[in-house]
Amino acid sequence: MARSDVIGKLPVVYDPTKQKIVVENSAEFVKSQIRQKLDDLAHGSPLRLTITVERQRKKRSPEQNRMMWALLTIMADHYNAGKAGGTTPEACYIEMLEEYGLEYDFLELPVAAVPILRNAYRLVHIVELLDNDRCTVKASMGSSSFTSAQMSAFIDGIFDRLAEMGVNDPNVTQYWQEWQEVPGWKKRKS
Fold this sequence. Notes:
Layout: E1 12-15, E2 20-23, H1 28-42, H2 62-80, H3 89-99, E3 105-110, H4 114-120, E4 123-130, E5 134-140, H5 148-164, H6 170-181
Antiparallel strand pairs: 1-2, 3-5, 4-5
Organism: Faecalibacterium prausnitzii
InterPro entries: NinB_sf (IPR036619)
Protein name: NinB protein
């Protein structure tokens, strides 16, 4: 389903003992917004819709994201051995994502459309230039689509890689201790 097809998302809770779906109290405002959008789309006539029910996923946390980038910066600094330039944290990010089996969409499109695609995907790399001003790209949402559990596994992998590299940085030790101690960072369920 294309993102533009989504009219709204309404958080609900299914109670198996009563076999009922209940709209969360905090969702009443969202419910009224969705009704308004539906009224606008219907123009007074019946409107056919498809309702999709999905299990709510707990997205990665801002704290997890900050931890990831702090560790990737240390990794890049280690690769560069204190010299300016060289490997960037972003390059380390892509390397780690690929190691952890990040899925890519391979697309063929006009070269002029690549900037537009970058608005929809976090990672876009041109793989091959083709005839008629077309190209093949590989595109992915990156870690922004990870659940908190997936992000925890990814950060564990970054810690493992830093250990394999023999990085002896007091910040890594401090981050590791925080990572193990802070409730909710590592142990979140998806």
